Every structure is written in C-alpha cells, then in structure tokens.
Amino acid sequence: MRWRTIPLGTTQGCGRWSYFSVLNIANSKLTGSIPPSIVNLNRLMHLELSNNQISGELPSDLEKLSMMSRCLLNQNQLTGSIPASIARIYRLADLDISMNKSSVQFRNKSVQCRCYLHLT
Fold it and tell me: How many domains, the chain?
C-alpha cells in the first residue's frame, strides 16, 4: 500500500482524520516516505508504523504532533537523522527507530530527548 491512498489531513472516509488519537498501520507493507501531512493529525498520541517498508527521512516538523507520547517507526528503511524539533514533543515517552536501513541519529548532537529512545 502506498501512502497516497491514505488521505491524511482531509475530510474523507470515516470523518476528520485530525481527530485520530491512535494511528496503527504496523505490518501493512507500506512503502514510500512518511507524508509531511502526517503533522495534520494534531491530536495523535500513538503512532505505530513499525515493520513496513517506509523509506526516506522523518518529516522535519514532527514537533507539531505535540500530543504524541509514543512513536514506533522501527523495522523500516528510514534514513537520515532525527529532527532536533522532536525534542520539543514534551509528552513523548517512547521513540523507537531501531532496525532501519541505516543509522538514524540526531541532526544536532546537543539535543536532549526526555524519552526512552530505541536506536539499535
């Protein structure tokens, strides 16, 4: 399944996507990169996209997901670095980016993350 089939941030299907608090699309054979429109899910608390074939970098403005407490992106093909802005998500308690295509690390080495971080 390609991301473009999921109308994030629009009014379609089962109502306004921005009201979702949990988005679990793990083990769904997703390909492509995470769409920038994912930040329109401003009430999202739990994002689980593990064990897919998602590639590319994380959106740079993930801090707009200010309600998110859990973000599981492990077992994909993500590359690049973690945006420093993710440290501004104060509720984030668990960030799992382990087992991706290459070593994903913070862009800014001085970032202090208050969450449990899975990197390997």
Answer: 1
